[in-house]
Structures
1.
Amino acid sequence: MHRPSYQDPALEIRDVTAGYVEGSPVFAGLSLSFGKPGLVHLRGGNGTGKSTLVELCSGYLLPWQGTVRVGGLDASSPAARAGRRICRTQPALYPDMTVRDHIVFTSRCRGADTEAGLDRAVRLGLEPWLDHAAKALSTGNTRKLWYVVCTLGSFGCAVLDEPFNGIDQEGAEKIAEELSLWGADRLVLLISHMVPAALAVTDDFVLDRTPRSGESWH
Ligand SMILES: Nc1ncnc2c1ncn2[C@@H]1O[C@H](COP(=O)(O)OP(=O)(O)OP(=O)(O)O)[C@@H](O)[C@H]1O
């Protein structure tokens, strides 16, 4: 069986038509292909389909037509999860679970190094909050925890939707450092209106309209 690996950063969206309301697709014949590592910055106005693209990559939104493959695997298959990370805009944490326990629990689920996860949280300024419940965190610290939890362990492809929202400058710089580092040997698809100067973007494109059937971006 083909398993996604750290060395398999491919994301391929082929001829995808998808949306939420029958007869009114958000994408019609969308094709995007990234076959090698890099930090790709995806921009676009409100409502152009950025979050819809995230959901297609996550495998939760199934295309009406076409295919979405992550690490060579169908995005909706359970096997695709291991090599892919998705960080949505809306944090989904356990209100009564501490910051530390979020990281320990998720690291165990991912087979990841717990200490490495805690170190990342500390670097982002969460040390004073490690033993506090998630519900006690400020908006920015909630988002820092969410970002860490969503990106624990090894992966070949990560898709992040507005990870800098609500994050202070120091935290944004730390996140930019991590994303730049990952971009050297993994595929990182970053959706963000704001981009810190330190970010080492290797590719950039704008999602500014619904593409016509058969149109390809990359
Ligand atoms: N759950 C849903 N049900 C119906 N329509 C939806 C749903 N989610 C998004 N849409 C529609 O799909 C289109 C694309 O929305 P999407 O959220 O993907 O855009 P976006 O580029 O992420 O926007 P923003 O920058 O505002 O976050 C919009 O017309 C939106 O109204």
Note: The radius of gyration is 17 Å.
2.
Amino acid sequence: MDKVLGNTSGLRPAQLKSLSNLYRRRIEPGRVGSPELARNLAELAFDIRREVSVLIDRRGRVISVSVADAKAAELPELRMGENRLAGFHLLHAHPKGGGLSKGDLSTLFLKRLDAMSAIEVRAANGEGQPGLVHTAHLTPPGTVGEEEDWRILPPVPSFQIDEFDLGAQVSALEEEIARAARTRQATKDRERAILVQIDQGEFDADERLTELAELARTAGADVVHKELVFRRNLKPGTLVGAGKLEELTSRAYHLDAELLIFGQELGPAQAREIEAATGLKIVDRTQLILDIFALHAQGVESRLQVELAQLRYMKPRLLGAGAQLSRIGGGGGSAAGGAIGTRGPGETKLELDRRRINDRLSFLEKQLENVAMRREERRKQRSRNEVPVVSIVGYTNAGKSTLLNAFTHATDEPRRVLAENKLFATLRPTSRQGFIEGIGPVVLTDTVGFIRDLPKDLTRAFRSTLEEIGDADVLLHVLDAASPGADTRFDAVNRILEDLGFRDMPTVVALNKADATDEDTLRREQGRILDTVGEETPSIPTSALNNRGLTELREALADAINRVQREELAAREEVRERAAEWQ
Ligand SMILES: Nc1nc2c(ncn2[C@@H]2O[C@H](COP(=O)(O)OP(=O)(O)OP(=O)(O)O)[C@@H](O)[C@H]2O)c(=O)[nH]1
Ligand SMILES: [Mg+2]
């Protein structure tokens, strides 16, 4: 006896037998069902007072029988090609009557069924009789003017159930899906992504979403939709809840997106659950940032740091995730190629089996220690020269590298450092010699940009790079004063500096991109900075693009360096006096 799935508890053997006999039914290929099968289903559903579902493949064979509604009916593991439908449709009987339910329709959509049909059951002479048959099928992706993801056909009496040409409908739809896919192939080399930022009432939720879009763009995604989802309380499994995920899946279908990017870090189980519910590729903010770092990593140290951060992030996600492991391995590749969320620096190590991850982690840590030691040597050398050092810090994309170029007249290769409208363009600290009137030669160091909620794996991996900031005599904090949310970015950078223990270092602020904003905004920012950090920290409007404000910036830096040198002198003086007292 073939196995009847679903809730069969309490059924009599004869009832089970009749249900199992459904497996022997055959219908004409390309039809929804046959009048005989409809009668059969209606009688059985009436008899057991539960919904009965059969799954029928394109050759007209019954491939599964379940005592369950459409949503709970067990479907075979779907091996959907992107461009086709599931290859079977579901026919089921509603003992309580009624047309297609919301659950029926969302199952149709989420499982990409060829069609979904419900037979209303009517009682007559103490028996179940098939009433109207309701059928729905999917609409082509991106259909304009279509209200829903499906089209519900006018109901027909059960004796006309075999009149609808499902076969023709399915081929037309698949042809349309394939055509859309061909156009997509021809026009896109970027992954199309939908962004979701959860808003739990943070004041900067909007900015976070905008920033997520910038991150996605930098990682090479084409953002086709982004939305802020307000949730005071998060659902443990899916964060936003099943209904919202369904809505997003539908949107992805119509916008032809394959990637769903979340603005917060997802736990390993969450990512898996959301992936299972939507069938989309899921990437979180941390993964996105790691990805960008992987793309931009140049030089031994940055590559080691990025790989270390990636492995630390991956490790808990690989445990007990067989399916994901193979996908990570499959998608990985060179830094330039590969899909978003799977890129590794240089030769990717993400294929590593779990056993070897720990080995690789300790190897990387050791290597980084060595690099850090060599760097320490270099630092000592430099401090002996007693050339003042200015560290350029600030939020990513603030214009740090551009300003360094402008400052050191390094607009021509090969002295020019890379400046780009991409987040985290700079990962490796780069030093240049500059000259400041009244001070003489100074060293300016450009470094990796900051971002709010910097993933902790990255902070740890880049610790030594970040610590080098502390070697400076003066910090030059570059702020993009032209983009919205300058204040939150300023605060985010200060918070990170504070975490690193550099909050007390003498600082000069450059209100950069002054060319792209108005004087009122600049004055307002200056006022705000004065209120938060006091007049010890001057702020100068600059434009690294137009060389505006560079003279004033030099003067402010000269003042700050002078002050540091005077303080050092005074400190040394004090030490000497103390020593003299003791003699
Ligand atoms: N309008 C305007 N754009 C600027 C200015 N300075 C820099 N930019 C632009 O801002 C973008 C980022 O510049 P970068 O110098 O790469 O910024 P960064 O702070 O080094 O960024 P990361 O290294 O990614 O952290 C580039 O597209 C620059 O052309 C400016 O004064 N005005
Ligand atoms: Mg830079």
Note: Residues 400-401, 419, 425-426, 446 surround magnesium ion (ligand 2) (CB under 6 Å).
3.
Amino acid sequence: MEKISVCLRIRPLNQKEINDNEIIAWDANDQKIQLNKICLKELIAQKKVVNSLIYEFNHCYGQQADNYFLFSTSVKQVIMQSLDGINGTVIMYGQTGSGKTFTMLGKRNQEMLQNNNSNIQQLIKDSFANNQYNDVGILIYSMMELFKQINIDEKRQFEIKCSYYEIYNEFIYDLLREENELSEPLIFGTDYRKEFVIKNIKEFNVTSIEDVIACISKGEKNRHYAETILNHQSSRSHTIFKVLISAYSNESEEEENFTFSTEACINFIDLAGSEKITSSPISDDITRNSNRKDRNKESSAINKSLFFLTRVIALKTQKVPPQHIPYRNSTLTKLLKSSLTGNFKTLILLSINPGLSQYDQTQSTLRFGTSAKLVESKIEQNVNFDASYSNNQQKLNQLIQKNKQNEKIIQDQQKIIDSLKQQIQTQNGSEILTNFKQSEIQLVSKPSVSQFNETDVSLLEKTQELNSQLQQEMEKNVLLEKNCTELHKRLQKSNEQILTYFNSHKEMEQQIKELKLQNEKFEKLSQNALNRLSCYEGQPNFKKFSLEDLQNLEHQIQQCLQEIKIEKQRRNSFQQLNIDAMPLFTQPTETLRSDRSSASQDFRRIEEEDSLPKSYKKTPKKDVKQLQPKKQQQSYFKATSNRLSTLSNNENKSPLLKKPNLRDAKNFAKKIQDQKIQKPTQVQEEYRSKSNENHSQQGGQQPEQSKLKNDIQSLADRLYSLSEKFQLNRDSRVSQSRKSTNINRTDIIYETESELLGDSRTTIHKSNRSAMK
Ligand SMILES: Nc1ncnc2c1ncn2[C@@H]1O[C@H](COP(=O)(O)OP(=O)(O)OP(=O)(O)O)[C@@H](O)[C@H]1O
């Protein structure tokens, strides 16, 4: 959407006004117009204004500005766009005598129009040469510029038509008609866009500025004539000079380009004076010389049209829907509808009388302009689709026809190629070459053109022409075949690529499948773990592992492992001792005898050092039965059981089930050892005395030696079985205690420990046993 441009022009005071001591009230500068200080004071005193009045427009032209400057800075852009199919309207608005016609047609318009086209160009040239840029008006400058542009545009052809008409007392009169038709007003119709159009209006083709001047001249003459016959005052009508510009793209330039045509119209509208007729001094003059009744009628018609124009503009600025805007209420608004509703680049030029006495009229013009500058219009290019469509259709048909012909030629050539291929298959290449050469020789040796009659000549020429065409087509075919093979290769390549992609896609699918399965497995595992965790969470003694707990556990396990290591070393060393001690029992009696005391001392020392395994007891079988009754052994087991049960009972207090550790076992063993220490000494002494007795009685060395050996052996066996029983008993107690408690994390730890310790323990037992044996 684009806003309407509103510019203002303030004319200088004329001689009459100067003589009447008229005061200049307004200062115009760039985009502003305001009351000057002297007049402001005056008007404040008259209570017409309170504050300084400033109005802003697109451009404000002062008294020094001339028509050409006004044209080049504001009007030109509206006109130039019409060449590209954009409509334009230039409206002169202002009170009578403010300079509307002066701006539109120029100072010398009368002179120019009466000149009968004889020397228009010269007149314009002179004006330029003498810097008299007011001599010609903006309408003339616009048309001159249009022709200038058209003449330099080589790509398009233009058609320009002009029409000139006026609205007087709400009737439209065609000013380009013959004098006898002038009294017949024109009527409105609507076009396909439902826009108002004037029916049967005369349009004249113009190709130069002279033609334009001729049109305006004719129109002005008719106006004066009508003034007489219709008794109407020319300045009391609105005049519209309409220019229709059609542009067609130059077809001969590029055959491939479709034709493109645009249509645009420019309306140059010079409105009747906007003042109230009774208040105007000029109108007083008019009324004095004319029929008052007619003048009142004129006045009311002007007032009506200008009132509705102002109303339409006001409603448009208030964004009232188009259907509620009263365009139909006056002829002027009907005509200006398209200029105001859209698709028209509209420029309103306000012409202002500078005199203070005309303050009210000027103020009214300025208000109109302020309101009008808010109106927006949608500007679009008018493309003549019909013309371009028909042209395009025609071209399309031609192309289709051409294409059909080409297809036929290709088919014919294809047939020739097929036949040639067949020939190649039936004959060999050299024969064809020979045939071809022969036909060539025949062609060369054919009678000259002069020997033929005219028909023959033309036939020969035609044949040659066809041959060359055929050659060209064959070349084209070869090229096409080449292209086809290339395309085929590319197709194959892309097929291969697709296959590779397909395979990799399959592989990826397989991988995804496997990953999915793995994922499912992990999900199941994690679900199980979660279920187990929830089970444990339900337990009353469940305690979540903290880092500290885990560190403690690790520490304890490490300790246990260390103890196992020590135990293992101890047992190994003890085993070594046993091995070392074995020869003592196998040596001859003399050595035994001599070494007995030292051996028993060694044995005792070992016992004292607590290096003797629990399973080992060096007591003669016979004497153990007498001196160490079963009862005594049972008491040891009982003590062990008690100890274990105490440990089991302590489980709830301790974070870990206290399995008898090495220290406990050590203490416990020491306790047993303490009790045992006296017994073997006693047994040994008794045994010694007894053996001495036997020895003295039997007097032989051999039976005493074997007896001793047997006794030691049986004693060792017995001791080992006892220690095994002790071990079994302890394990059963432990398992019982374990069963009696809930499975909790202590069990898990205990299991780990027992696994570690149990294995090594079994190994130690086994090695001990084998060593003993
Ligand atoms: N810019 C100007 N410089 C000098 N003289 C001017 C200028 N504008 C207008 N005039 C003079 O003022 C007088 C009135 O001008 P013009 O006829 O153009 O007024 P108008 O607004 O067209 O009046 P009407 O509505 O009656 O047609 C003319 O004599 C004209 O020469």
Note: The mean pLDDT is 73.
4.
Amino acid sequence: MAIWLPPLFIDRMQRLLGDEFDAFMKSYEAPKYAGIRVNTLKISNEQFRDISPFALRQIPWCDTGYYIQDDVKPGKHPYYYAGLYYIQEPSAMSPVEVLQVEPGDRVLDLCAAPGGKSTQIAAKLQGQGVLVTNDINSERTKALAKNIELYGVRNAVVLNESPERIANVLPHFFNKILIDAPCSGEGMFRKDEDMAKQWATHSVEKCMLMQRDILKVAASLLAPGGTIVYSTCTFSPEENEAMIAEFLDAHEEFHVMPIGGMGSFAPGRPDWLKQLQEEDPEFHFSKEAIEETAGCGRLWPHLIEGEGHFVTVLKHGGDRSEPSGYEFIEKHWKSNRADRTYVREEQKRKSGRPNKKEKHSGQRKDTAQEHLESYVGFAQQELDIDLPGITVTYGDHVYQTVIDPSLLQGLKVVRPGFYTGTVKNGRFMPSHPLAAALHPEEAKRVLELSSDHPEAIRYLKGETLQVDRDRILCKGNAEPKGYVLVCVDGYAMGWGKWLDGILKNEYPAGWRWMGA
Ligand SMILES: C[S@@+](CC[C@H](N)C(=O)[O-])C[C@H]1O[C@@H](n2cnc3c(N)ncnc32)[C@H](O)[C@@H]1O
């Protein structure tokens, strides 16, 4: 056998799988599958297939997902830095596919870090609607925010919260919710041997407690007629079918929308639930709930080309015409906003909360207003772009947001919206996420680099480049001097500032190309 597996896990799988066990064990000798998913916020699926530096083979359950050879390094190409694709394990692409996100949806990704599935949801939204992406682990939300920004997402809010606290402020707000639950990770042992070693610590029992709590709250976040997708990357029935049956018994208005037995999804295992119930008095499910779990979907490493996954679509039977929490909130927001701009005044001192003197003199409000004006001036002069939502300032930072900022008060907000830039000494400095989200036709000045030329990597390493005036493509009557959107083969990577034949590099230090 190629990798070490916990003996207790082997015993359990043998008992559960019976005749299938040998084929299952053989899958651990097969190589793991590598995948990338095209980021259609930046490039169409067809265009990417035309320019892909790697040989691509379609993943059956995801239109924009492709197997790549295990020996290529997709993280070492300028297209990765331009956010053209996300490197993702093939089976991990399935939960968002079955959530069936449409432009305009209000989607919550409750356990989102580092953001693979959030970037997939954002691509499906195509900039329309709302994505609230959350993780309870503050360290992991840093990677989540970075991925949202690298992939050019304009309509997301990033939170670092418990599901309960989100439900307190946004009850019944979302029409689609993804719970990619923390789990014991049994399906990832082939991909990541450390997961096998840590299996005892991330025990099935501990994970069940977290999953149960998260599922319990999710129902109060969903609008009538909405959909919850629950997924794990583990095999144990306790974390999968048992969680679903328990949820169904507690929420009679929900049903499983069957996917098991369709396409690549093997059916759920109601027989395993019956067995659990017989062996352990802690488990008790209704007959109906047990039967419904046949509609859950399982991806098995010995049946498909990918790792182990469990996916279930839970549909709320409520009438879609019933007003959702979102409709109440939206009405309140519309009646309370005079124009498209909003000044957030009661921020903490560090990020701009007014001190007593400012509050009474109105000085803080003036500063925020000035920041807004300097952003609007920049946008009018330098961009050709129409962003959804409203502009807000948090201290010196300017964001565009699609959610009423007053709703987020009291929550730990990592990004209140799309971070467009910072105002320093009265001047608006565009952010890197703004550049990453732009298409060349939305910027006044563009420099095109080629992925075949070393200049592209030199730019990504943070080097200053010598660039002749005639290489800066200017729109209308713009002059080459100023902020330039630096692109690779037509796709934005970041900013540079051009003056007299020199392009000052604005690519942020923490994002740069490392190594050769
Ligand atoms: C399987 S990972 C998510 C992977 C992510 N969906 C992706 O595709 O990149 C599970 C995540 O759940 C988070 N988590 C654990 N308990 C949570 C809770 N109660 N509320 C929200 N997130 C939680 C963990 O910090 C972890 O990042």
Note: The domain at 7-30+89-316 is CATH 3.40.50.150 (Rossmann fold).
